[in-house]
Amino acid sequence: PGDDVARLRHAFRAVTGRAPTGHESSVMASALAGQRRHFSDARAAERLLAVGESTVTPDRSDVSIGEWAAWTMIASLLLNLDETLCRN
């Protein structure tokens, strides 16, 4: 819940167990803006969201498909941080 800053902070904390630094917050905000620009093309968003087992249906949410795709990429970014990967 909340604005983008609060959502990004919450997502970062959920995957790393700590609050993001100012620089990390800036990088995430910039990444989100870039993903939103990229996925303003609905076809690109549809291609991304067609991958995987979960489906996005317009009746499930008032969030645009581009917004779903942008946040999907932010989740991917966070889950692929060295800090969140478990290596043997």
Q: Helix and strand succession?
A: HHHH
Number of helices: 4
Q: What's the overall average pLDDT, rounded?
A: 90
Shape: globular
Structural class by SSE content: mainly alpha
The CA-CA distance between the termini, in Å, is 35 Å
Tell me what portion of residues adopts beta-strand conformation.
under 5%
Largest sheet: none
Please tell me how large the radius of gyration is.
Answer: 14 Å
Helical fraction equals: 55-70%
- Poorly predicted spans: none
- What's the number of extended β-strand segments? 0
List descriptors.
88 residues, mainly alpha
Spell out the blueprint of helices and strands.
Layout: H1 4-16, H2 22-38, H3 42-49, H4 65-79
Short description:
The protein is mainly α.
Describe the 3D structure.
Helices cover 60% and strands 0% of the residues. It has 88 residues and is mostly helical. Helix 2 runs antiparallel to helix 4. The radius of gyration is 14 Å and the shape is globular. The protein starts with a helix and ends in a 9-residue tail after the last helix. The model has no long low-confidence stretch (mean pLDDT 90).
